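Subject: two folds for Thursday's group meeting

Dear M.,

Sorry for the delay on this. The cluster queue was jammed most of the week, so I only got both jobs back this morning. I'm pasting them in the order they finished. Each block is the input sequence followed by the predicted structure tokens. Could you check whether the formatting survives your parser before we put anything on slides? The first protein is the one we discussed after the seminar.
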Amino acid sequence: MKKELGLVLVTTAMMIYTCQAVSNLHPLILIPGNGGNQLEARLTKDYKPTSLLCNRWYPIERNKEGWFRLWFDPTVLLAPFTTCFAQRMTLYYDKDQDDYCNAPGVETRVPHFGSTQSLLFLDPNLKKITTYMATLVESLENIGYVDGKTMFGAPYDFRYGLAPKDHPCHVGSKFLKDLKDLVEKASNYNGGKPVILVSHSLGGLFTLQLLNRNEPSWRQKFIKHFVALSAPWGGTVDEMLTFASGNTLGVPLVNPLLVREEQRSSESNLWLMPNPKVFRNEKPIVITPNATYSAHNMLQFLNDIGFPDGIYPYKTRTSVLMDQLEAPGVPLTCVIGTGVDTAETLYYDRRGFDEQPEIVCGDGDGTVNMVSLLGHESLWSNAKNQTLKTIRIPGVTHTDILKDDAALGEIVKEISGINSQFLSVEKVNVQ
């Protein structure tokens, strides 16, 4: 039934364009989520390997300048190389500089900014198992979008987050500047038409900050619509599991403790912790024999799990950023999955945080809790001149929203409608 519905919606969307020229399309920019694009690295003489296996010759496959794919690398599945991967992905917070940086001797870069190329597959050699936005991009191409002309990609180093305006944030701030430039170039390249921003997951938080940090006049001129897929407006309970015990993200064979320190070091992971502005009640999220933790006592949680280094940046940077959730000021459509078991409460026994907890689930998309997915409604439903629309897709997970037939049908239909000026503000439930 889902597949048939998706095909009907895609067909309907394509029919809308029968009488339209491709030039009538509003340019569209895709902003991926956490881990949603390729990331490359290069090792310098300052690199200090943790073992012989991690020496500078690994991996063998790299280009003539020494660059290799850091994410996604399938050797991460093998325990010795998991350690190498984690070391190279780890960020360090420099309190004196008040900013995050790479591990010593590790340079990183994001390939193909402006194109959708690095969003399609996380590893082009393993397309079937590392597909990310390929199916969504194909669906958009079917209604006339062309990569580099009317459709663009904005990949970024997803380990880094953002900080309040009065704090340095070199990598994240540069991405926002690059994204703003891309918006203006895409618009100018397409005759001054305003841009449709389509984000997935963490990309929605970056997009919101882009909009919040630019004047209403800029938004009115350059932004047509913001379509947020699976946006975690208020973070996720799943991140508390990540920080406490490590998270394999469903990747088989990987010991979560081998990647826990690297995951804790991620600035964006800290940003995705449950936001007390959205998780408003004092309901315990993590329960242990000695203490309970909600979104409102995160500093104590970070200390008790053995990560006191996270307290200062959370207190001075992340929590301030979490509080700055202003309405985007442009029409917003949120497409979300519902009815999928999603971690809601974590129970730890006396063995502590080095063991995986018992998990009690609630509603969500399998990654993001429903209260966070609907954060736009609780935060901005009364905001002046703010159009909100919610499209719910039952049974669709956080990442399957990018390839499920019913979900794709709704996404393409929405984008087709935006291009055709047929906008609505109602909530939509897909049966």
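Second protein, same layout:
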Amino acid sequence: MSPNSVNGSLSDTQYTPSIELLFLGTGTSSSIPHLDCLTAPPNRMPCLTCLSTLTSEGKKNIRRNTSAALRILGKDGKRTTVVIDVGKNFQAAAVEWFPKYGLREIDAVIITHAHADAMNGLDDLRGWTLGGAIQTHIDVYVSQSTFGEVQRSFPYLVSKEFASGGGDVPDFEWHIIEDKVPFEIKDTGVRITPFLVHHGRLFTTNPPPAFAPTPFATQPTTPNLSGRSSPARPLSDICSSATPKIHPYLCFGFLIQDTIVYISDVSLIPDDTWALLESTKKPMPVLVLDCLRLRAHTSHMGVREAVATVRRLNPRRTYMTGFSHDISHDEYVTIGKAAGGDSPRDTTSMSVTERRGPVWIRPSHDGLRVFVSSDDSVKDETYD
């Protein structure tokens, strides 16, 4: 039975999911299509993935910054809306998908890391809170270091005294979250556990993230989940080393309601995070996993690394995300089927681990909706 839609929402009379996952964006930081591909001179090899976005057949190759929205059935029977990451083109994604699927109020925004493709759309959230248009404020959940980067880059998003336009800025309530410490969205019963993964490396003489002093460096305070204010870590006064050191750039993944594992930006999963992910007593219904391209990248998994991760976790379904323009959506479908064991392939060059039984792997695409029911069955609107 496929999910049925009534005015953009699921029909409760036929199928009531406990979680609805909507992919707002599935591309890397550059987004797809690339402007240089659309304006390439005639003597350059054409980029078929980017050019296909100009046709109706290639719409699944339009990939905005990686982002997702979830509607989760809370303990009071109401749905809680959680957005993961608001990148450089979040506003365009919201304009396309929020009206179509009946999304309006945002109960929480959770940010994976402090890169532009994850947080530069924070300012666009003024459309929700300015003048109480939709809601009075938005609760934003970030790590201490990401909060520090927001302070540095967008101080007016933390304190309106730094707004130059009379205070016409979003209203946020900030919450600091920590590695492997579960938190609840308001009093909804919706629980999320953040966990740290590596998203590439930094070569620096200062412990990351190091940044110049801001107006907050003298008396920094940040809200925490208990409602009290606590000192923000003053990163700018850390002593530097004369010799550059290699540091992993840390990024959050999220375990959502013990049902969905979301890892959008990852090059390596540390052992202590593996211990958390493998501690669940049941196969995870849904894994969302970074897969930039065929080959591994300094800060992202490639196909081989992603497939090895899928086989180790063995979820019911895996949706790859975070794509570059190297491979089209249809090609990724073929790769997912072959890598997962759904179609014949040459296995002579694969390890024993990679040859084990079939796993379900498919590429996500912008606008894809996935539904998880209370019995952990999974459906979506593209592959079912």
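Two things I noticed about the second structure. Residues 11-380 form a domain with the Metallo-beta-lactamase; Chain A fold (CATH 3.60.15.10). The chain has one domain: 11-380.

Cheers,
T.
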